[in-house]
Amino acid sequence: MMRIIEICKEEVSFNEKQIISILTAAAIAAGMSAFAVSGGAYSTDTNELTEELNTMTDTEKEDCINENLDTNLRYLSNLTAVTANADYGLIADLVHEAYENGVTAVEIKEAVFQAAPYCGYTRAINALSAVDDALITLDLDIPTESRAGVTEDNRYDEGLAVQRQLFGSQIGAITDDMTAAAKLQTLYLSGICFGDFYTRAGLDLNTREFLTFCTIISNGGCSPQVNSHALANLGVGHNSAMLRAAVLANEKYNGEEKTLEALAIVNALDDSAVGGSTAGEAVPEAAGINGYTTDAQELTDMMWHYKTDDADGYIDASLDADTQEILAEAAQAVVNESTVPTSDDERIQTLIDIAVLAADGTRADEFPSAVEDAANASNSADSMLAAVLLCVPYNGFPRTLNTTSAINAAVIEN
C-alpha cells in the first residue's frame, strides 16, 4: 500500500517536549519554514508525491480519511476549504450534509467565521450568507447572537495569551525596537487573528487550530504558515495522520497543487518531536455582545479593527486616502476575479502591482522586481508595507506575512 496511506494509519505517541522549542516568534513574524523532519521515511519529493497521490484509489483515500478524521471535523474542514476557495455554490449541500450528520448550526457558522482572518473577510462574509440561506431551507432557527469572547478592552491581551499557549511564551510581544510596520503587523496578529477569533464561543481552541490549518492549505502558496500551524496542531494533541487525512478530505476543493504542497509539509513532520497538549478542550463563553442580526454583519463590523488597531496612524502616514481606496479596490478585484483598477501615476501603479501580488499569494518570485519597480517610482519601504497591511482583511494574514517578508528581503537586497 502507498506510503501516504501507511503514515495515515500509523499509531502516534507523544513525548513531553513543548512546541515552544520548535517554533519561535521569528519564524512566524518572518514567515520562515521550520520543518520537523521525520528522518526521510516518507517522501516530500513533489514527483514522488504526485505519483503516489494519483495512484491512490478513491476507496483508499476514503479509508484513510475515515480512519483518522471524525465526521464532525471533516465537514467543518470542508466548509473552511470551500470558503477559502470562494466556492459558495457548494455550501448549501455541505451544510445540509453536515447537519444531517450531527454538526450543529453554531459549529457550521463558527467554522466559516474562523476562516476569515486566514483567507480574507470578504470570502467568509459571502460564505456566511450562503450558510444562512442553507439553514433556512432546513427550517432551522438561525443563531444570530454574537459569540465573541472578548471585549474591546481585553481582545489584544486575550489573543496574545492564546497565541503564546499555542506557539510559546516568546510569541507576539511588542518591543521598543520594532519598526512601525512590524508593530502594526503584531497588533493585527495578536488582537485580530487570535483575540477576535480563537476566543469565540462555539468551538474549542483545538478545533479552531485545526480549522486554521485547513484554511491555510486551501489558500495555496503559504507553506511557511501551513508548517507553523501543522506544528501547533501537534502541540494540541493532533497527529500527522489526522492532518494528512484532512488534506486528502479537501483535495477535491483544493486541487492537486495545493494538496501536494500540504502533503509535503505533513510528511516532513515528526509526531514525537512535539507532543503533549498545550491547549484545553473547554469552549470559551461569549462575552454577551448584542445588536447583530447576522454573522455576516458582525464579521463586517469586525473589519473595523484593522483601522482602530492602527492607533499610531502608520497606514495613513504612509498612504494618502485616494491611494488607499484604489489599493483596496485592487485587492478586492483579485478576490472577486474582476478587473483590477489601474493608475496613470507610476508610483501608485507599482503599489497596485504589489497589492495584486499580495492578494494572489502564489507569485513570490515576482516580488523582487515588483519592489525594485516600486522603489524606482519613489515609493518608500513604508509605503509598500502599508499597502500590504491595508489589504490584510481582503487577503488574509498568511499571504500578508509572506508578502511583508518578501518586501523586507527585497528592500535589504536592493
Structure in words:
- This protein has 414 residues and is mainly alpha-helical.
- Helix content is 64%, strand content 0%.
- It has 23 helices and no strands.
- It has helices at 3-9, 25-30, 46-55, 58-68, 71-84, 91-100, 105-119, 121-137, 155-167, 180-198, 205-219, 223-235, 240-249, 251-267, 295-302, 305-308, 314-318, 321-336, 346-360, 367-376, 381-390, 392-395, 397-413.
- The longest helix is centred in the middle third of the chain and has 19 residues, at 180-198.
- It is globular, with a radius of gyration of 21 Å.
- It starts with a helix and ends with a helix.
- Mean pLDDT is 87; it is low at 1-5 and 9-40.
- The beta-strand count equals 0
* Total number of helices: 23
Characterize the overall form: globular
- Ranges where pLDDT stays below 50 over 5 or more residues in a row are 1-5, 9-40
Average pLDDT reading: 87
Brief descriptors of the model:
64% helix; single chain; mainly alpha; 414 residues; globular
